[in-house]
Amino acid sequence: MLEIRKKGVKNFEHVYNSYKLTFSDLRIAFNGTTQNVLITRENGAFVIKREGFNVTEVSVYDETGAGTEETFVNVNTLANRLIELGYIAFYEDGDNLPLTTENQIKGKRLTATVSATYNIDLNTDSDFHLTMSADTAFTFTNTPTGAQVRRCKVRLTGEFAATWTQAGLQIFGDDYDGTKWNDILVEMWIDGTIKGLLIYQQRETA
Questions:
Q1: What is the pLDDT of residues 70-129, one digit of tens each?
Q2: Do 72 and 113 sit in the same domain of this protein?
Q3: Engineered SS bond to 173: which of 125, 132, 143, 200, CB 3.0-4.6 Å?
Q4: Pairing of strands 19-21, 11-16
Q5: What is the tally of structural domains in the chain?
């Protein structure tokens, strides 16, 4: 197990097989597909293990608080917890997160035929190409928490009725036309409860 221990403000200790290290230039990367965690130095040199760790092999301890072991099964949950703790691989206290440029962002597409009910999992994909074969009720899962904003695109077709089960979602844009492909741009956030926009745009082709 890799232990990430918060000892104080901007002071984290990493322990693996009794080997301890502290660096101020650590960087951390998460792979949502493989659930892998990779820790490197700023110069790209790997730290501890070249292949990284599965998220289930990482424990977090906040020794400025209760100091109890926290374990994780999803890299998004781990990342959010480390951000809450001010983990040095993300930013220093009061600083903004490093800017990610558009060309660095890579999405993942899912293609499926759906009917009756369908869950749109915001942790697994970012672009959903869906063909309805019957009236379908859609529900978003892994929706935002805290200050997060989650976005995705749904490309939808099929001459059936689409409904969105979650309250707080407002629909704008073009009318849905089941004979065409319709792009639905989705943005969700928390304002007491889940809020969101679904903006429809008709397309001629997929």
A1: 999 988 888 888 888 888 665 433 444 444 444 445 678 899 999 999 999 988 888 999
A2: no
A3: 200
A4: antiparallel
A5: 2
